[in-house]
Specification:
- The complex is a heterodimer.
- By secondary structure, chain A is an alpha/beta fold.
- Chain A is 34% helix and 25% strand.
- Chain A has a domain at 2-87 and 163-225: Rossmann fold (3-Layer(aba) Sandwich), CATH 3.40.50.300.
- Chain A has helices at 48-55, 78-85, 103-113, 118-131, 147-159, 177-192, 204-209, and strands at 2-10, 23-32, 37-41, 63-68, 71-72, 88-91, 165-169, 196-201, 214-218, 221-225.
- In chain A, helix 3 (103-113) crosses helix 4 and helix 3 (103-113) packs parallel to helix 5 (147-159).
- The relative contact order of chain A is 0.20.
- Chain B is α+β, with helices and mostly antiparallel strands.
- Chain B folds into 2 domains: 14-52 and 166-295, no CATH class; 65-148, no CATH class.
- Helices cover 66% and strands 7% of the residues of chain B.
- Chain B has 11 helices and 4 strands; from the N terminus they run ααβαβαβαβαααααα.
- In chain B, helix 8 packs antiparallel against helix 11.
- The two termini of chain B are 45 Å apart.
- Classes of the chains: A alpha/beta, B alpha+beta.
- Chains A and B meet through helix 2, helix 3 and helix 4 of A and helix 7 of B.
Amino acid sequence: MVKFEDVWLRYRHPARQGDAEAEALRGISFEIPDGGFRWLTGPSGAGKTSLLKLIYLAEHPVRGRIEILGTEAAKISRRDAALLRRRIGVVYQDFRLLPQLSAYDNVALPMRLARRNETQVHADVTEILRWVGLEARLNARPDELSGGEQQRIAIARAVVARPKLLVADEPTGNLDDDQAFRLMHLITALNQLGTTVVVATHNTELVKRYPAPRLDIEHGRLTHAD
Amino acid sequence: MRTEPRHRADYLGLREALGDRLLPVLVAAMSFLAALAMAGALASATLAARWQQDATAQLTIQVPQPQAPSADGKTPRLAAVLAALQAMPDVASPQEMSPQSVSALISPWLGADPAALGLALPGVISAHWTGATPPDALGPALAKLSPGTLVQTGALWAGRVAALTTSLQGCAAAVLIIVALVAAAVVAVATRSGLAQRRETVTLIYALGALDGDIAARFAARITLLTFAGAAAGAVLALPVLAWLAALAAPFAGPAQIADSYNLPPALLIALPGLPVVAAGIGWGTAQLTVRGWLRNLP
């Protein structure tokens, strides 16, 4: 379950202290049940990425209560927070692939951090790379891949460890329609297997094609929550 | 044809981020200085122990009016004192110094022929004290046979040598502490530089669920390797310099050491291999603290 209760987020702007515009999120409350799917929609700068950062524990709220996968975020130790992050798959808007690693090693990273054995790593990484259509590029470095290929590697990395919660920030932004729908198939398949999914997008076609409850955000406020 | 993945274990890319030669070179310099400081401390302690032993054991007995009758009135004072010393179990090899030797000894002050000045020179006996306790009772005992007899030991000089040795060892310890602190500072700077270079990578690994300890261990392993290698190089480079210094110091350490001029003290040969281990420990600990402190700034 993902639960937000009156959550506020403010980024540090030393030159603009006290300015209300420094607040990225204001009084956000919603709840996503285990295995739920939510589109997170809104214009650029509305606060979608900030909300996702709170979900994958990359930011602390200044106010409010956040519960992720049954754990209250403010009350866990650093170690437990790290272990919780391992149960969350994240697709970043800018991919964030490690340039010094091959596609294979990038995808394998979450499993190796979780100390899975190499036999299992090999089997799962090979399978997911085949699924995203990049089994022939496993030794390529990110700078040798196209934007679409990098995005598919980023998605493969997010889902390879079978996370309980998948958070994706514009995951189809660099993909053509075919690739985008193919990846949405993967995400919905994961969701049907029990993974809770939150996908931020402003691709209305995608939202229409995969109807699901929405969280609409504008100027840091939730304007609609199914 | 099936493509096999080529795995890279160094996923933080620390071989590049912490790959320059500056850290090992600086640690080698620190290790070199530490080796010299340790050698100085050990050498001063060894020489001081020897000098103290010699100084406190050496006895010089001055007998005024050596030919005057002793207290028993039968033998001259010098002969009586010499006989008494020969009978004492804690006194070894008492020998009367010839008048020529005494003249030569005091010639810097009284000229080549002190007898020409008409001064009454005392008889002088040299001996070695082998007793476990200081020879405090020796002077009064001899004075009963020959009034005015003086017994001198090197205790005063031994005390001064001991104070000097303590000072030298204190300086060496201070040098070692400063070297260790500078080495730790150098490692901290190198680690922070590596963190700055790999900021994006480290924050991503952290976001994927790496524990603070995992990330710190990666940095610490790399730093430990570099500091060990640097310190080992410094210790090896110090060896010829230490051997040269040992050869210079050999005449002060006695005949046995002159024969083996280039032999380093066993304690130093045991301590030198410990330098890379200590440096690696400083590197490991400093890297751990630096990385963990840096990670504390992440949410």
